[in-house]
Fold each of these.
Amino acid sequence: MLDVAALCNKGDLRRRGDHWVWHGDPTDVALLSLANKLGVERDKLLERYPQVGAIPFEPENQYAATFHHCDGHYLAIVKGAPERILRMCEQTLQRAGIAEQLATAEAMAGAGYRALAFAEGQIGDGAARSETDLLWNHDSFTRLTFAGFVGMIDPLRPGAREAVHRCHDAGIEVMMITGDHPVTALAIARELDLATSSSQVVTGTELSQMDEGQFSESVERARVFARVAPKQKLDIVNAARRQGHFVAVTGDGVNDAPALRAANIGVAMGKSGTDVAREAAELVISDDNFATIVNGIEEGRVAYDNVRKVIYLLVSTGAAEVLLIGTAFAVGAWLPLPLLAVQLLWLNLVTNGIQGIAMAFEPAEAGILRRPPRRPTEPIFNRLMVERTIVAAVVMAAVGVGAFWWMIAHEWSEPAARNALLLLMVLFENIHIGNCRSETQSALRLSTLKSPFLLAGALGALAIHVAAMHLPLFQGMLQIEPVSATVWLSMFGLSLTVFVAIEIHKWTWSWRLPQTHHQ
């Protein structure tokens, strides 16, 4: 059996100094390692049995073969799926022997091993056959001698089971598509908590006998697909996409390339993946670890959340300024211009700019992977964003206009009123960034210490404005000056109105749409 495993092999395993260097398919390399450990060397075998041809492995055939000269005959060496290889030995094993060996293979598969079968035999003399007849006349493959099974296992990586659980918590369905025996696939799926019974396993043979409706139903129901051909993997991806799923596919081989390209996101393996698979994919995972993909999903959600938070902060405060100035123009002679152009620039580029940059570093919210996925077609400005932007902008603008009108009505000078209003808008921004930290949770539940960048940004923006109020250069440029403690307390009290308004909106949103995060 080890001779067969070493001869029907496209891998390469050699010792260089203190290290082993390998190339080729990991299965072939593992077989060479087994043979080497037990004293069987492939190079010496090839000297004795020169290779004259080969049939490469194809999932449709479920086996690979090599052909060698042996004492004037051709020697066929084959390896592959047990059920396929045992059919090639039906004249030597007979029906009872085949059934016994299939039971052995089933037992190995049930223990989580991928059983690989091996056989060999003389199939003709070299003078009587051409090489073409030899390679493709499969009728000769019925009287080979069964050599044995090798059980192989690719143990689950640490954290793989937990990563699948995290996907389920995040509303992401995980499927296993493999060329392994269905019993092997089910054993591994049970370890991953992907499937619990054979009814959740569909084989490639079963898929080939289904019509389009049955195929789609199987894709929706099953979580494990075994003995699947590359074309069927592509069909599964296309069926899932037709059902409205956003599909990510992982793969490493040449045969995976069509499915990788057809998926919404193709994810190739960086270590074991072929160049073809990497070229077909949108992402390449350098450590070949499924848990890395789940970590990437979490980081992607954090990044998307932070983009929304920054946009909400900038647009809502900008809209408040537009409403503030627009209202002053609308009332005409009743109010002078609330803020000068340079003061608006100061708000947007300095104080608000610092806070916006800090908001981009907001850490992940608790339970971010327990949310349902958002729809791919959902815009940034969805219903929640629009409602909350309007509420924040209207409150800040209304309070700002009211405060400015009151100051002018009580005979404050225009520069003094603008100075106090500019301070109010800066305080609004500092209070409002607390509102922006979460779309669903109250700002009172979020510790500022967990977001040091945001805390530093808020304090820094306020400190810069306070410094500008006391420095002659900025006093002249911005037409501002220090204010009394009474004005400070009054403006701070008014700035809390935006906090109260958004807290009320969060509460009403939670009971209006309790199961919805973004929609």
Amino acid sequence: MPQKIRDSVISNIAAAMGEGITELRRQEVLLKTGALQNAILNSANFSIIATDEKGIIQLFNIGAERMLGYQAAEVVNKINPSDIHDPQEVMARAQALSAELSTAITPGFEALAYKASRGIEDSYDLTYICKDGSRFPAIVSITALRDDYDGIIGYLLIGADNSVRKQVEADLTNAMAAAEKANLAKSDFLSSMSHELRSPLNAILGFAQLMESGSPLPTPTQKASIDQILHAGWYLLELINQILDLALIESGKLSLSQEPMSLVDVMLECQTMIEPQAQKSGIRIRFAPFEIHYFVNADRTRVKQVLLNLLSNAIKYNRVGGTVEVTCRLITAKRIRICVRDTGEGLPPEKLVQLFQPFNRLGQEASAEEGTGIGLVVSKRLVELMEGEIGVESVVGVGSVFWIELNLATEPQQLAASMDEPLTLLQARAHQGAALRTLLYVEDNRANMQLVEQLIARRPDMRLLSAGDGTRGIALARTHLPEVIVMDINLPGISGIQALKILREDPVTAHIPVLALSANAMPHDIKKGLAAGFFRYLTKPIKVNEFMEALDLALEFAETGIDNETQLIT
């Protein structure tokens, strides 16, 4: 190898590997001893290849021999580095450079050395091909070697085996794929578990509601027993929802629908819903009036869920005859804080730090108050997903203040209502003189079928047809053309969504509103169902009033072709 190339190689390598040494010290080392030269050229940890200006190998160190299996004598003055690289990678590099520079770059050493020849130090991933045909990934840096007049006299390639990093990357990719698969399986499990738990609850709560309002009315003793069944059933449903919410949040699968929403409207709804609980517990509750109609950017359903959880806790853990006060105030021009203040026992600092831990009830496990230790954890996660914040301040013997902060939003543009108000439930039922209307219920669960049969038996203006699977339901729909169809999702044979698609594609049945009634109650299930074209998506257990109201809206739509509720929403 020409001496000037050798000297340039040593200089470049020493510079690359000795950045911690001052320039004066580096020159002193190079001039006074040949030990550094020998250490570099004989390094077994790096492949060091030097070429002349045409790309023909002039130096092939011990590391290159060890990695690639060639002896220096087999390659020096005979081949260039591109000959021991994966040819497809060399071709791809040439094509990428050609596209970047809008000029043709010849595959081969020119493609490898192009940037270095223009004074740009380059490093890249490539695959080395060994003498025995085996391959391994490497990281290679390439630098141009220059003489005293800045003319290129060759190129230096320093390579390191990249197998370990590539294996780690492959393992990480596989681990991420496995984690994603596990998340999907978890999501499917949650959806399935929700369905399996809700199905028996549907029968329990549905028939208990029928017994409660049946004729003749239950005796006081029976009424007390029914109340216990309903109380336990609705509490179990709440527990199922909280556990599923928490699991869904932690798996990253919870979807939110964030949009500008009226904080005043939600607070009024919460007030209406929570006041009976407060009265029953002997707690005075006060909502401070809003001076300004604020809007926040959040998911309306989830904000209500969080506020109701805070309000319910403030009532449950208050003192006898205590009070709960709800206030709002601006924190910044873009942020509002809602505070729920109670007059309970308060929490000491050591309990405050445990407050948002799952299933930790802070010593209340033995109390008479029902609870799971999940509600606050879910609330915290939900608020954070909505880019908000939740916190608490507490003084023992005085009470606690739980607060949430949300981002303010501008009031959305309202569309002028051009339609009349929709018929109320009572108005719809007053149409006793109207022609008998038909409801088709497609359901494979006999208990659910019996429940809806008894509900429709209370409607003298309606008759019920039933089918145990989607195929039979489609046949009955085509034959009888019912005004409304109620469809379960999980059916034997074809699913409710598949059956809906067939009905929609048939001109004879395409106009019939179809209500989904399913135990698949996860948010993504509801979203999927509504996207498929269901008129409404109802979840089990059946809430009788909700079912009847949705049925009335569907019947009105069947008569007029107008979905008044949708028009009011939009």
Amino acid sequence: MRRGWRTGLSELVRLLRQKDPDVIEGHNIYNFDLPYIAARSRLHGIECTIGRDGSAMRSFDSRTAFAERSVEHGAWEIAGRHIIDTWLLLQSYDVSKRSLESYGLKYAAQYFGFARTDRVYVEPNRISWYWDHDHQTLARYALDDVEETRLLSDLLSPTYFYLSQLVPMNYGTLARIGSAAKIEALILREYVARKHSVPRPRGGLQTTGGYTDIFHTGILGPILDVDVESLYPSIMLNRNIAPRSETLGVFRHLLEKLTDLRLKTKRKMRSIPQRELQLKYDAMQSSFKILINSFYGYLGYTQALFNDPEAADEVTRTGQQILRQLMSAITSRKGTVVMVDTDGVFFVPPPDAQSPDAESRFVESLARELPVGIHPVISGRYKLILSYKKKNYALLGYGENVKIKGSSLGARNIERFGRQYIRECIEQLVKRDIEGLHRVYGKYHTAISGHKLAVDEFARVEFLKENLEKYTAAVSAGDRNRTASYEVAIASGIRWKPGDRISYYITGTDTHVRGFDNSRLAEEWDPNFPDENSQHYLKRLDELSRKFEIFFRAPDFRRIFSVDDLFPFSHQGIEILTQPVQLEVRESDDIETPPVELSIWLDEG
């Protein structure tokens, strides 16, 4: 076995030197493949000198931020080669989409639709057995991993490739750092070229957030989703908003240039019939879009050299004013505003504007009410919206597809059965099928009671944000409570680092069981002797069901979300409630958006 490993590692080094690749791709390559190769090389006394200059790999600790979450991971450098980790690209993709349940390769391949039906799957705990007994199956499994990684990279990496032609950083680095660092590198390049001094970051914090509000709950339609195209970049350009400490005017020049490049590239993309060239130009315009939309965030980033929180506040205040002006134009034309979300409005168009051509003319008429340079565009047309709460809704498309948005309706920390249950409930609601809604509840109640769910359906997946030392010290000091995810990791002996995922489930029989005392790793669950806490998961089912209380009268809600007794369920007399949201409720809940009168924008011309 030792000779086999040594031969294999030597062959790997030889192949890399022979093929001499510019780019090395892998899924979770930073955290698994490269550390594994390095450790095996040390164990067998092999010089893993795969750099172009004959040098060995070099590692260092790194942290990558994805919106409100950051991931600590090892980062590696190989001289003369770029390293692309599709695991990081996938998380960057999900910052805006918020639709991925997992960042694993197999899940991603199925999500994007390129997993083959004959793809070979091997359970992680069975890899050693296949290595010893069925080498051929293991080889096919590894090859399928390689092919899926390449397809995932083909989908997600072109944007970063084209960014590397703009930003003074290499391709591999750009694929693992945040947008603020990219913008700062562009500004610094010009400051260095002009031999100009660089300021320190400004103090203070941004205090104004984007405008989000809800005006109706229930089911309404038809629905137009109208966005203000590039709202924040347009505001910064039209009002000449830039960091006060950026005295050379590079910030504004870059924003103008990138915006112009993106528009030209989009026009070129639409004018070219060849599919391959369309994809190329789409990746290019996407790379411009990422940078353009990051200029506003850079203003409020506390560690940015050229930050300006007050300027960031001015952008968001102006954005609020424009959205209120847009909403006023809609309602004055007999439209019904349902919800507003940062840079767009969901509304029911008036009865005389409910065909595609009429809707386009209606939106064009709205544009005439807005400041010069501000362009509303139709982002989507839908049969109806299920309006739940701010930033949380479901849309039924004309192709009968359902799109769900918002953490309350699809949070990743909800168990998989819970996410699926919420989706199935919403699908019945948008069809106004009350009988179907009741059947969905009964189906899940029966499955949980009878231990019919697989462990990956009821296990909870969480990210560990702290290392062991910080967690235990905080618990000992009384600064935080014990939590199931950390306690499971400790009990199992897992060595973790911040950013790692752990999957666990709740055991026992008590409905009110304490999770940190009654939890096990998901991989320890035995389908022949299921020990998940059915009472706990039935309670979770009822907790999830209460999300839909807002759509029904209390007696009707209790009838729908209960199991049948002597009298079979009947939907007669049950209606889905659609109603306006009370003004005082909206104002007290709208913590992101202090009230700003529309007249402020109008008075400023």
